[in-house]
Amino acid sequence: MKIKGDLVENRIIIWNIEDARTIFKDGFYGKPLGIPKPKDADFNTPLILDLIEGYYLVKKGIIDVYKDGLRLNIKTLNTKCKKEYTDFDAKYLVFKELRDNGYVVTPGIKFGCDFAVYEHGPGIDHAPYLIQVMKTKESITATAVVLSGRLATTVRKQFIITIPRFKEKKVEFISFDWWRA
């Protein structure tokens, strides 16, 4: 039986504590309500998932999402995601690529980027990567690269630009290393 989540505004809440622990323990999905950096799944609060995480888990067949007691189909959930995220398809392809390769992906808004990426999980290690999703023909200024790189260096992270390739269903990664002379 799939785990039940309720869509509330632009988040998905797993109310059942055992289900919340299971989802968190099996990949560090979401955040337990009121616990900023949990180190394990020993919590007694609901789990709050970002919409993109919930969408991923629905597509993986792990959860079902409900709104007002009705189960949402993937098309309806996709429409909701596209309303909430600029360039959702591009961001989802990057999120999926990273998650499918074992990384823990969280929103990067506090770093001014799309995602912060962990190798092990929040509370266990620090996110070593900051990800900015860009489109194939989108340009970036040298100033924007320097600003992003300086921020990443200040918080001891590597700045990575990702470029989704929809036809090939793959993502290209461009990382920046900063050197001191």
**Strand adjacency order, main sheet:** 3-4-2-1-5-6
C-alpha geometry: globular
Which second-level CATH architecture of the largest domain applies? 3-Layer(aba) Sandwich
User: Number of helical segments?
Assistant: 5
Please give the radius of gyration in angstroms: 17 Å
Global structural class: alpha+beta
Question: How many strands, what sense, and barrel or not for the largest sheet?
Answer: 6 strands, mixed
Low-confidence stretches: none
Number of domains: 2
CATH class designation of the largest domain = Alpha Beta
Question: How far apart, in Å, are the first and last alpha carbons?
Answer: 58 Å
Number of distinct beta strands: 11
* CATH topology tier name of the largest domain: Trna Endonuclease, Chain: A, domain 1
Mean pLDDT: 91
How would you concisely characterize the structure shown here?
The protein is 30% helix and 28% strand. By secondary structure, it is of the alpha+beta class.
Molecular structure report:
There is one protein chain. The protein has 181 residues and is of the alpha+beta class. It folds into two domains: 85 residues, MutS, DNA mismatch repair protein, domain I (3-Layer(aba) Sandwich), CATH 3.40.1170; 95 residues, Trna Endonuclease, Chain: A, domain 1. The protein has five helices and eleven strands; from the N terminus they run E-E-H-E-E-H-E-E-H-H-E-E-E-H-E-E. The strands form two sheets. The chain has a six-stranded mixed beta sheet, covered by helices on one side. It has a five-stranded mixed beta sheet with strand order 7-8-9-10-11. Helix 2 runs antiparallel to helix 3. The mean pLDDT is 91.
